[in-house]
Write a structure and sequence with these properties.
The protein is α/β, with parallel strands linked by helices and about 425 residues long. It has two domains: about 160 residues, Aspartate Aminotransferase, domain 1 (Alpha-Beta Complex); about 240 residues, Aspartate Aminotransferase, domain 2 (3-Layer(aba) Sandwich), CATH 3.40.640. Helix content is about 40%, strand content about 15%. Strand 5, helix 5 and strand 6 form a beta-alpha-beta unit. Helix 2 runs antiparallel to helix 10 and helix 3 packs across helix 10. It is globular, with a radius of gyration of 22 Å.
Length: about 425
């Protein structure tokens, strides 16, 4: 666990910008990581440097060669992060745009007829893409119901809806509202068993900063992440597509490379900033593994991050010191139950004695940054069935500390008291 390794938490926090203070409001605890994680200082420096370079890719000069080398390294680091031994990695406009492109290519490339399959747990990024391209291709879209009590969807629910005619299936790796992970490997295996040719697209946007990504183990055809939620910056998304999905017709420059997913000149700084993230994870994994294998170090970092965040979640739910946890506070309701196992960095709650907006304001006045989620097009799929109009999302990352959790619980205690 990061916090139990002497000096490591201090070293981790030193690598991030604005850990303890907002540049606009001053000192604060940052529990809004699901809305965008803190940025690595190296990412900020890299982004500024590449934004200033005037040269373009593919030219016969040293500057252009350096840009091309940064792109090649970035793509190699992306493939390493995904644990992708085949297929293609690419940069898009955003994680949402990448999901739309993966789903669109799958829907148009799959055999005609059949149906498309998703779940009610999904973020509108994938749910909207599935709905759009089911309509365009004239296929019914079946939406598997998630379990309100546990805040997730299991393999049995998917299996009950599967048929050999399933052409495209989408899976959310972790819900950004409940914070509960989904067993994507088991669901993908069930899909392959019934519909071997089905294209499987995974939304990993919430999961990516909380655990390892392994597309080879999942057996998916597409995976999308949003780097601004995993210590990088806004302005780009990263996707991986299998060889067979890459072979499908897709938008690209006529007579260009057939395997190319990227359109136009992408920002070299995006690739370089993603390499910064991988470098950071490799450094962190080195505190827990002496292996020279970079992938082993990335997985060691993922295990350490999970252990740290589960410790924070346990303290938040069950209490720390003499402070009761959320599970024991009267009038506090947790979206998706109080489970620790399977929860990835998010606790969404509501308090019967105070509205969500007022609770967000109260916590802000106590120096704690959280966010309101409403029964709208973003979160209505989870909040609507519960009959909730709103909730407050508290989202942690591995650089948060138990002391910060205690301060949060103290502020919450003022409300429930």
């Amino acid at each position: 666990m990061i916090a139990q390794t002497p000096g490591l938490m201090e070293a981790v926090r030193a690598r991030f910008a604005h850990v303890e203070a907002c540049p606009f409001e001053g000192p604060r605890i940052f529990f809004e990581n699901a809305g965008g994680a803190l940025r690595l200082k190296s990412v900020i420096e890299t982004s500024a440097a590449y934004a200033g370079y005037p040269d373009n890719q593919g030219r016969d000069n040293a500057a252009s060669a350096a840009l091309m080398a940064a792109i090649a390294r970035g793509k190699a680091d992306m493939a390493l992060f995904f644990n992708a031994r085949g297929g293609q990695v690419f940069v898009g406009e955003s994680g949402t745009e990448v999901l739309f492109r993966l789903v669109r290519t799958a829907a148009l490339g799959a055999q005609p007829g059949g149906m498309m399959l998703g779940s009610t747990l999904e973020h509108p990024a994938s749910a909207s893409a599935m709905s759009r391209w089911a309509e365009v291709t004239g296929r019914p879209l079946v939406s598997v119901a998630h379990d309100d009590a546990s805040g997730t969807v299991d393999v049995a629910a998917y299996r009950a809806a599967l048929t050999p005619e399933t052409r495209v299936a989408s899976i959310v790796h972790t819900s950004p509202v409940t914070g509960m992970a989904v067993d994507v490997e088991a669901i993908a295996a069930a899909i392959r068993e019934v519909a071997p040719e089905c294209f499987i697209i995974v939304d990993g946007i919430q999961h990516a900063s909380h655990g390892a990504v392994d597309v080879d183990a999942i057996g998916a055809d597409g995976y999308a992440i949003s780097p601004y939620k995993m210590f990088s910056r806004h302005g780009y998304g990263v996707g991986w597509a299998s060889d067979r999905l890459t072979d499908c017709p897709k938008e690209q420059i006529r007579n260009g490379p057939a395997a190319n997913w990227e359109m136009g000149t992408r920002d070299t700084g995006a690739y370089a900033a993603f390499s910064d993230v991988v470098d950071y994870l490799e450094w962190l994994g080195g505190a827990f593994s002496d292996s020279a294998d970079r992938r082993v170090r990335l997985e060691a970092a993922a295990h350490a991050i999970r252990a740290q965040e589960q410790g924070l979640t346990r303290a938040m739910m069950q209490g720390a010191g003499n402070l009761p946890g959320l599970a024991d506070m009267p009038g506090v309701e947790i979206i998706g139950g109080t489970a620790i196992e399977g929860r990835e960095g998010v606790v969404s709650l509501r308090c019967r004695s105070i509205g969500a907006a007022d609770l967000v304001a109260h916590l802000r006045e106590n120096g704690i940054r959280v966010h309101i989620r409403k029964n709208d097009h973003y979160c209505g799929n989870v909040l609507g069935p519960l009959g909730f109009d709103e909730c407050v999302r508290v989202s942690m990352s591995h650089y948060n500390t138990e002391d910060e959790v205690r301060r949060f619980l103290s502020a919450m205690q003022q409300v429930v008291a």
